[in-house]
Structures are given as C-alpha cells and as structure tokens.
Specification:
The protein is an alpha/beta fold. It has 15 helices and 19 strands. The chain has a 5-stranded parallel beta sheet, with helices on one face. Strands 18-16-11-19 form a 4-stranded mixed beta sheet. The chain starts with 12 loop residues before the first strand and ends in an 8-residue tail after the last helix.
C-alpha cells in the first residue's frame, strides 16, 4: 500500500531536518516546500549536538579577510578560495539572521557578542549560545520557526530511500513511512542529511547519520568530491557511551591542556600546542594512546571552578560518569566528528544532476578543504541555505506522472560496515588497510541487503583514500607521510568509483576468486 501525496506534487522537497534543511525551508518561504525528516525534528541531527558555535568575524579586532586566512591555512591547500571568501563574508549577517529568528546567543554585559577562541583561529570569533549548547539553541529556534511557517509541509517519519531520475534529471523522491512507501513527484530536491559519523564505531555524531544523502546522490549519478577527508575530533569523552560525548575545543581555548596518566603535557612542544589544527592534535593523541598511555583533558586550572557555568552540558555528563571537571582530569580520545567531503556543488548548492541541490555537511562547497576550521560548519549551513533557497526558487518546478512505482529498498543499517571503516580508515591509514576495507565492503555494496547503502558510501570513501597517495589535512597515510606540492581534489561519480574499486581489487588481490 502506498501513500497518496499528489497534492504536494511539484513542490521542492528538502531531505533532512537539521540546521541546513530547516534554514533552507525557512529561506524559501513563502514558496510552498516539503520537508522530509526521518525522525521527529532534531531527533537525529548532528546540528543539535554542536557545542562549539558559529565562526564569524564580528569582533572589533577581526574581519572576514582574517577569517578567510585562517580557513585557507586549515584547509591544507584544498579550499576553493573564492567560495570560502564568499561564505565567510556572509557569516556575520548569518549570525544576525539567527538572532532575528530567536536564537539567544551569549552576550557581554554591554550587549555585544561573547566570543570564544578555538584551534587555528587567530582571533576570538566563535559565537556561542548557552555556553556549550549552541546547536541545541539554534535547533530550538529553527524548529519553532518551521512549525509556525504556513508554507512548509513537514513530513516527519519519512525516510528518503531513492531519488527518481528520468532523462538525467530529478523526477521524484521515494520514501519509506510507517504506513508504507510514499512517492513525491518533484523536479527540485535539496539533500541536507548531514554527515557520515554513524559509519564508524567511534563517533560524536548521532548513530542515524551514516551518509544516506551521499548514497542518494551517488545512485542518482551526482559527482562526489574529497570523500577521503574525515575529521577526527581529538577530545571525545573516553567512555562506553556510543555515540561519544564531545568535549568542545572551546575548553582548550579557555586554557585546558592535554596530559597523560603521569601528568605529562605531551603536546607542549608542538606548534600551537593544544590549539594546533584538529588533525595535528588528533594524531598526537592517537599516537600517545598507541604507546600505551591514557589521555586526559585537564581543565582543573582553566577554566577551573568556572567549568560548570561555562559548559553545563559537558559538566552534566561528566558528573554522570563520576568526574568533576573542576577537580578531575577528563579521559578523552579521538572520534569521527565531521566530513569535509560530500556532494560536489557550486556556490548555489547545485549538484551535477539537474534538479538536485545539497546543503550543509553532506555538500562539498570548497570551504573546508582537507581540514575544517573549527566552528565553520554550522556557519556554512546557515549561510549556504540562503543561496540554495534562492537557486531552488529560481528554478522551474513541475511534476510529471512518474512512469512506475519503484520497489522500496531495504532500510539501511550500517552495523556491518562500522568495524570495516574503523579498521581501514582511521586517524592513521595505509595502502593495505584501505585495500582490505575495499575488498570487504565490495560484496556488501553490490548486494541488496540492509548494508548496501552504508557499504557503498564507505566504499567510495575508501576508494578516494586509496587514490590519495599523500598526507594532507585530515587524511594521513603512514606509507605516504609527505604532502605533494600540488593539491588536487578527488572527484568521481558512482560508476567511476566502482571501476576504480575493481582495478584496486584486481591489483591487490589477483587470486581473490580462490581466497576466502
């Protein structure tokens, strides 16, 4: 039994209920738009968990040129400088827009923004809300605005499983609901499904974020870019909970340091120390742990007694684990946090498939390059949502009678994929471990089971990592530790990736047919 949604035919469809999707829907108003969310709004959105805030040059000693300079430096040669410049210049206006929508950002007594410092930023430019609850506060305001906006049709509990493509252009969306499959006829779709952390065993992202948007786009024929660049946050809470609670970089910006079980501050001699770029800190923590040490975030002196007031969310989960950050070091370890790669898009968020846009973490705008600068992600989602909405509104919308009702694919489940990616695509990588992951993922990706879509995304990440025979930003190859003089993005379609997969398997495992 299928659901009749013919009354919504022709309206643009936004897939994803995080900050990028919500903001795009609001920016499209008053044009009617359909917003699909797999869970109740905010239930599985990484935006809700964001602690750091938004990076924007709003301080008296700051300007967008400095913000751009820091962004380019962190991106390790792969930022699109023109795109990055356009985005960071729009960041201050994005903060104002969120404030207009009711986001209660933290302010100084004189009413100015209270700004924080995070790694690789040359100025205090991180705008927070309720200390470490920025994502929650932004989502609260955006969800409230969406629910009261009459032009937005919100369909919660709708999981997009496939994009329908006819004549190389978007023709509709096939979704799963508790009442059966649903087909939405549309020539305009925005993917805003977030990241890929749920593909890994250790991640700070919601477990339901495992690259569904990338699978949708890839199967529709879109180009994907720079998928190998997966950012590991160096200070996830080292405990049994999965997803792993995050300890925001702002704590180190307030003066907290990294120590081991002996009290040794093992990053003291690194350039930038604990506020070095995230990839540098993550590798240092990873290596120190590999030598048999435990690693702790020591906030006992800074921020010390002010910890609970500055970081109420983190303080609460630490106390639940029996740790008082004002008097106890906090155990930490790296975990997957953000994906710099994604659907290749232009400034307006257009993909290489007619009628398909992407916004937020699922997209690759060129802002982040090989290593995202802290707190540039929420900012990117809010800024780019306006341009995506303008582009969608300017495109002709129509709905034709779909030729057939496609069979609903199995509900995706990444459980079988997680150990494969954790082993082959961690903080430190090498040719053999990546090739082993490719070999294991291939039969899953080519099947029709629940692991097919997650394995397909993991396979494309692995192909990109295998092809990048260098270390750059968040992608570190122990067998190729140097950075090449010329930086090049890796861009391919699904069919091109699968051709590369077979070449890799043939080269690495010539006797694969007789191997177990």
């Amino acid at each position: 039994m299928s659901i009749d949604l013919s009354g919504l035919a022709g309206q643009p469809v936004i897939i994803g209920g995080g900050a990028a999707g919500l903001m795009t829907a609001l920016q499209l108003a008053p044009e009617p738009v359909v917003l699909l969310s797999k869970s109740p709004l905010g239930g599985e959105a990484s935006s809700l968990w964001a602690q750091g805030g938004l990076a924007a040059a709003v301080g008296a000693d700051d300007d967008p040129a400095l913000h751009l300079q820091d962004t380019i430096a962190a991106g390790a040669g792969l930022c699109d400088e023109a795109a990055a410049a356009t985005i960071v210049q729009a960041a201050p206006a994005a903060v104002d827009r969120l404030a207009q929508l009711g986001v209660a950002f933290d302010r100084q007594p004189d009413g100015s923004w209270r700004l924080g410092l995070e790694a690789a930023h040359s100025r205090k430019r991180i705008v927070h809300a309720t200390g470490d609850g920025t994502g929650r506060e932004i989502m609260r305001a955006l969800i409230a605005a969406v629910r009261r906006c009459p032009s937005i049709t919100l369909l919660e509990g709708f999981e997009a499983r496939r994009l329908i493509v006819e004549d190389k252009a978007i023709a509709g969306v096939l979704a799963a609901t508790v009442d059966g499959p649903a087909m939405l006829a549309t020539t305009r779709v925005v993917i805003a499904t977030g990241g890929i952390g749920g593909l890994f065993l250790d991640s700070t992202n919601p477990s339901g974020c495992f690259g569904q948007g990338l699978a949708l786009a890839a199967r529709a024929g879109a180009e994907l870019s720079d998928l190998e660049f997966v950012q590991f946050h160096p200070t996830a809470f080292d405990g049994p909970s999965r997803p792993m609670p995050l300890l925001t970089e702002a704590i180190r910006g307030d003066g907290a340091i990294l120590i081991d079980e002996t009290g040794d501050r093992f990053m003291a001699d690194e350039l930038g120390a604990e506020l070095a770029p995230r990839d540098v800190v993550a590798r240092a923590v990873w290596r120190h742990r590999a030598q048999g040490h435990r690693v702790f975030l020591d906030a006992r002196t800074n921020p010390g007694a002010d910890f609970a007031a500055r970081y109420p969310v983190i303080s609460a989960f630490c106390r639940m684990a029996g740790i008082d950050p004002a008097v106890d070091p906090i155990p930490v370890r790296p975990a997957v946090h953000y994906h710099m790669g994604g659907i290749a898009v232009d400034r307006a968020g257009r993909s290489t498939v007619e009628g398909l846009w992407a916004c937020g973490e699922v997209s690759r705008t060129g802002l982040h390059g090989a290593n995202r600068l802290a707190s540039n992600s929420l900012m990117e989602a809010i800024v780019c949502a306006q341009w995506v909405a303008e582009s969608v509104a300017g495109a002709p919308g129509s709905a034709s009678l779909l030729r057939e009702f496609l069979a609903l694919p199995a509900a995706p489940d990444p459980v079988a994929v997680r150990p494969l990616l954790a082993k082959g695509l961690g903080v430190l990588r090498d040719r053999q471990s990546i090739a082993d992951a490719i070999r294991s993922l291939l039969p899953l990706a080519e099947g029709a089971g629940v692991a097919a879509d997650p394995a397909l995304v993991g396979l494309m990440i692995a192909v990109a990592a295998h092809g990048r025979a260098e270390s750059r930003g968040a992608h570190y190859r122990t067998d190729f530790p140097d950075t090449l003089a010329v930086a090049r993005s890796s861009t391919f379609t699904l069919s091109q990736a699968m051709d590369a997969v077979r070449d890799i398997v043939d080269a690495e495992y010539p006797l694969r047919s007789v191997l177990p």
